[in-house]
Write a structure and sequence with these properties.
12 helices, 51% helix, 271 residues, alpha/beta, 6% strand, Rossmann fold, four-stranded parallel beta sheet
Length: 271
């Protein structure tokens, strides 16, 4: 993978954010800020696009969330000068699990992700602000997200940047070192890390993803180049098995023009 040009990418993304809000009839944005690098980068880019006065950040910790996540979330909010609110999702999530108990960490993590998005869309309506998502290309390709949770948003500014490219952009944007240098984590449970859960480093993951999908290389070609066959196959299966997360729900075709099939217009067709 080649290095990105921070100046050009920043210009392209900020114009994208500004244009997406305008075309959808919004002037303001709301962003869930986790204290991680993705949301920090998106927050910085959104502020550069539309100004800090037009951005609301929501910090939404759960009782098992790392205290570092909250402090780093506040740090980037203070750096960018945005208004932010802290919404503790513990009462609502715990209320649900008091009725339907589980020890499954993944179920709890998914519920937290969807609860956060529910809060974001509530504030979207309250503040007349569009929800700006924070998912990157690496996560989206392998399905490392919660459908209708963190993957739900009105626009995804860094959705075509691999995670390693997000790190590069973060340095260009002067994101605080505490955020850039820590191990990426969805903070689903204590000591959880993205790379530990995925089973490889983002550097390995992105190199393979980039070769497979941007370079259109075959799995066999990658193995011949020295990549681990088991890792290439694992990534390929993750991408294939998560396709449903990247598409709209399929509609049974009954009429002449079917939504998602024949009835297609740009999102801004009436603007």
């Amino acid at each position: 993978m080649s290095d990105i040009n921070g100046k050009i990418v920043t210009k392209v993304i900020t114009l994208f954010i500004k244009d997406s809000l305008r075309k959808n009839g919004f002037k303001r944005a709301v962003i869930g800020v986790s204290g991680g690098i993705d949301s920090a980068v998106v927050l910085e880019l959104t502020v550069r696009a539309i100004g800090s006065d037009n951005v609301l950040a929501l910090l939404m910790p759960y009782r098992s969330s790392s205290s570092e996540s909250l402090s780093h979330g506040k740090l980037i909010c203070e750096k960018t000068g945005v208004d932010f609110k802290t919404v503790d999702i513990s009462p609502s999530v715990d209320s649900y699990f008091s009725r339907f108990p589980t020890e499954d960490k993944m179920l709890i993590g998914n519920k937290c992700a969807r609860e956060r998005m529910s809060v974001l869309y509530d504030f979207s309506a309250r503040e007349k602000a569009l929800v700006v998502g924070t998912s990157n290309k690496s996560e989206m390709l392998i399905g490392y997200s919660t459908i209708y949770g963190d993957s739900a948003a009105a626009l995804l500014p860094i959705g075509d940047l691999y995670k390693t490219e997000v790190f590069d952009l973060a340095k260009y944007l002067d994101i605080p070192g505490e955020i850039v240098e820590k191990s990426p984590s969805a903070d689903l449970w204590k000591d959880q890390t993205d790379e530990g859960e995925i089973g490889m480093t983002y550097s390995e993951l992105d190199e393979i993803l980039s070769a497979l999908f941007d370079g259109r290389e075959s799995k066999q070609a990658l193995v011949k180049r020295g990549f681990s066959e088991s890792k290439v196959e694992k990534i390929w299966k993750m991408v294939i098995n998560s396709q449903f997360k990247r598409t709209l729900p399929p509609v049974t075709k009954i009429h002449y023009r079917t939504i998602g099939l024949d009835f297609r217009y740009p999102r801004d067709w009436n603007r």
